[in-house]
């Protein structure tokens, strides 16, 4: 399994990221030794995916402490630099969550913060494996098919997480149980995480799939070509409303019309009880150039503007189940109490 | 206004098509003097858009008759070649309709067939102008805003028709009446007719707009950023179910959820009473390479397959109104009788 994030101690302490903007053509690694490079890597999507951002945030605190020692920052400077990491992207709750998981331990020293950061990484992978087992159980209990055909959007595999994957993890688990049919992977414009990353992982894992335009998702669902939609999440509000890659809510609307399940898979750290409803989630709007061109070539005429929201919000009544490692919330009916129970059981 | 299709008599009889695969970067024309070149141009989308295909089909019969004379084809060969034009793409009813409009007049000679073909072209533009007036009236009667914000998908302007446009024509008409707000143009993967062609026409016509990823359409609608969705049609079944560019049904589902109108604009020739329901419409599946790459570069890893339906079907209950030059059918309630009345009034 590919690793999106690793901590290396030699030749010097660093976070090694696989550069996801270059995949699938080029497998290049970025060795991050400063906060500046880390913040830039997060902003440029060298590393992306909500759970992966959580681990990156936690390890980022250790990295900042090491840099602070080398460059003799005072405490205020160090805090400012850690805030920059935390705020490098606004929508995924996990980035701030990862930073906050270890920040309180800073008085106990760099080694302890690093140990906790690596624990966040390990626990994320363990959580993904657990939620994938639970998710596969849920799917097989709700879809009466020998081989379950799945549609997914964006990338939620090993690359998006600290390992194994969330929505992708459930797909992988169904595959390992011999219960997976064809997978439809939306290409996920503008940055093509589906065409570039999900298909790369599916190919690597020997899973039958096809890539389709995002605009085909609704009709693929309505034509009866899939049995379930499984997506990840960047932030889940207390009522179950879920922010995820733009396009997700379109799948949810089509699933409702088709009468098939639409499920969200995410570690419990993605649930943000401080946010009551989806309307309160800040939606990152990215640079218009992403949607006005591709691979260096402009597609729209010069002078035309673009609108480029990176996420959308799926209302909880369209979500059949939120699958976490701690439990499953069927948000159409029981959102708040279920999610509260899940979060209350969270470690750390 | 740009012309997608023109008939030229000198230096020799030909159909001149603007090559829409090269826009907006390059304005190049293809001079078509043989059936082979015409069939290839239709298949390659040098000319596209349901109404434009109608005119192309009609003029194509005249072109085939001229080639038959020059190359001494017998009657059977000529019929075969005309069938090839008619069948060059399967989903848009207009192509076959255009061929059939003039085919019965072949015994009256090439000049008469050409005259009728040019009449199809002229009547298409006149129909577009009329349906645009009716459509703008309908929108202004149903949207209580001084400036109506519109979302559209694919290209339905002068390039997609014999002139003026269908859904685009309504947008243009609202603009001319001073009642148009911002237009959201979906980029329309895989071939980017929205980013390349619609934005080119909007820019040319001085209409404020932004291009967005297709996957943003649902959330743009749900967030209350638009007041109405207006699309074209490639084939409308007798019950009002409408085949249009893949992605259209996603807009319709979001409009239903948001409680805003979703309207289909097309000349009455797009209504096909021989097709009872959407399920019976043949959906063209195009080459997978279109979705596996982007602007000449491959996006998905080698070895991955693609699924590339070019159209989808919007069920009639999601359509607030079908706007034609002959009348308006509010298909959620009155589909069949309304559409029958519209088609019964059709000329030619």
Summary of the model, kept short:
The structure is a homodimer of 348-residue chains. Chain A has helices at 35-43, 50-71, 75-86, 93-103, 110-142, 167-176, 193-204, 217-222, 248-258, 289-292, 331-344, and strands spanning 5-8, 14-18, 29-32, 148-152, 180-186, 209-212, 228-231, 235-237, 242-245, 262-265, 271-272, 293-294, 297-298, 305-307, 311-314, 321-323, 328-329. Chain A has 348 residues and is an alpha/beta fold.
Describe what you observe in this structure.
Two copies of one chain form a homodimer. Chain A is α/β, with parallel strands linked by helices. Chain A has helices at 35-43, 50-71, 75-86, 93-103, 110-142, 167-176, 193-204, 217-222, 248-258, 289-292, 331-344; strands at residues 5-8, 14-18, 29-32, 148-152, 180-186, 209-212, 228-231, 235-237, 242-245, 262-265, 271-272, 293-294, 297-298, 305-307, 311-314, 321-323, 328-329. Chain A has a seven-stranded mixed β-sheet. In chain A, strands 11-8-9-15 form a four-stranded mixed β-sheet, with helices on one face. In chain A, strand 1 and strand 2 (14-18) form a beta hairpin. In chain A, helix 2 packs antiparallel against helix 3, helix 2 (50-71) crosses helix 4 and helix 4 crosses helix 5 (110-142). The longest helix of chain A has 33 residues, at 110-142. The first copy, chain A, is globular. Chain A starts with a strand and ends with a helix. The model of chain A has no long low-confidence stretch (mean pLDDT 94). At the A-B interface, helix 7, strand 6, helix 8, helix 9 and strand 14 of A face helix 7, strand 6, helix 8, helix 9 and strand 14 of B. Strand 14 (305-307) of chain A pairs parallel with strand 6 (209-212) of chain B.
């Amino acid at each position: 399994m590919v690793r999106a994030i690793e901590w290396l101690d030699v030749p010097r302490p660093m976070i090694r990221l696989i550069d996801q903007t270059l995949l699938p053509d080029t497998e290049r690694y970025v060795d991050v030794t400063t906060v500046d490079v880390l913040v830039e890597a997060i902003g440029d999507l060298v590393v992306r995916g909500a759970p992966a951002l959580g681990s990156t945030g936690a390890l980022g605190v250790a990295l900042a402490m090491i840099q602070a020692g080398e460059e003799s920052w005072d405490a205020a400077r160090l805090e400012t630099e850690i805030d920059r990491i935390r705020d490098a992207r606004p929508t995924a709750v996990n980035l701030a969550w990862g930073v906050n998981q270890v920040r309180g331990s800073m008085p106990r020293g760099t080694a302890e913060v690093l140990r906790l950061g690596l624990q966040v990484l390990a626990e994320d992978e363990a959580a993904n494996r657990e939620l994938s087992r639970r998710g596969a159980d849920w799917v097989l209990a709700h879809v009466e098919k020998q081989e379950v055909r799945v549609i997914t959007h964006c990338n939620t595999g090993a690359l998006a997480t600290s390992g194994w994957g969330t929505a992708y993890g459930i797909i992988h688990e169904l595959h390992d149980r011999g219960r997976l049919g064809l997978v439809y992977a939306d290409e996920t414009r503008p940055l093509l995480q589906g065409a570039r990353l999900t298909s790369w992982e599916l190919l690597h894992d020997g899973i039958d799939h096809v890539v389709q335009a995002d605009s085909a998702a609704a009709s693929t669902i309505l034509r009866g070509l899939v049995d379930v939609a499984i997506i990840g999440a960047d932030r889940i509000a207390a009522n179950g409303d879920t922010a995820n890659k733009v396009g997700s809510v379109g799948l949810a609307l089509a699933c409702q019309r088709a009468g098939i399940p639409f499920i969200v898979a995410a570690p419990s750290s993605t649930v943000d009880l401080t946010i009551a409803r989806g309307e309160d989630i800040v939606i990152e709007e990215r640079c218009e150039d992403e949607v006005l061109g591709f691979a260096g070539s402009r597609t729209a005429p010069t002078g035309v503007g673009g609108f480029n929201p990176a996420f959308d919000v799926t209302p909880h009544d369209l979500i059949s189940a939120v699958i976490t490692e701690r439990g499953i919330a069927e948000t159409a009916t029981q959102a708040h109490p279920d999610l509260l129970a899940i979060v209350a059981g969270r470690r750390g």
